[in-house]
Amino acid sequence: MKKIYPDAKSALDGLLFDGMTIAAGGFGLCGIPELLIAAIRDAGTKDLTVASNNAGVDDFGLGILLQTKQVKKMMSSYVGENAEFMRQYLSGELELEFNPQGTLAERMRAGGAGIPGFYTKTGVGTQIAEGKEHKDFDGETYILERGIVADISIVKAWKADDTGNLVFRKTARNFNPPAATCGKICICEVEEIVPRGSLDPDHIHLPGIYVHRLIEGQHEKRIEQRTTRKREDS
Fold this sequence. Notes:
The protein is an alpha/beta fold. It has a single domain (8-117, 147-216), classed as Glutaconate Coenzyme A-transferase (3-Layer(aba) Sandwich), CATH 3.40.1080. It has six helices and eleven strands. It has helices at 8-11, 34-43, 63-67, 83-90, 101-112, 176-182; strands at residues 21-24, 48-51, 71-76, 95-98, 117-120, 134-137, 140-146, 150-161, 166-167, 183-194, 213-216. It is globular and about 55 Å long. The model has no long low-confidence stretch (mean pLDDT 95). Keywords: Transferase.
């Protein structure tokens, strides 16, 4: 099965449609599939539901899909770095399904593992629990969370071989593995595609069985917040 495509546009060909659900890897601007996000913007696909820890910043990452009003709903944990995200939510232009961070990761993992739902104590007694099934186990109350299954997942890895075995680099692994598994079709962008057999099997973070399409590209790797201090002369 040929998995390598020449660019993000061709890798998404035939997969995009209005109203679809997309699971996106990344945390802040770390490990985000920036090339695929840009290609979705250029395709003009709208009314999207996007499951992602956050929505990037105003002019980068998923933030560019908010700028073009292509996103209808976000399923996220954190929105604090994106002013347009907050503006659209507070003005009623954007639906938001808040998820505790671990719950969102587990919802993606569960969807990828074929688990329709699971019970967790996280969120009990808060707005997170409103409208959800409650159940007691051993005298403790839990709420039911549903697994996430997306139409496609878009993720970023460091290296891949031509079969789609993936290696992530340090903290850029973050949400990428669970996001990759919960998509019906997974598209991954990487910095380098290496020959088959050159990856140590013990170093592979995600088996190629989960990855359907691959692209190799150059990445900006923008820093979300740069904090410096004035140099002190000695």
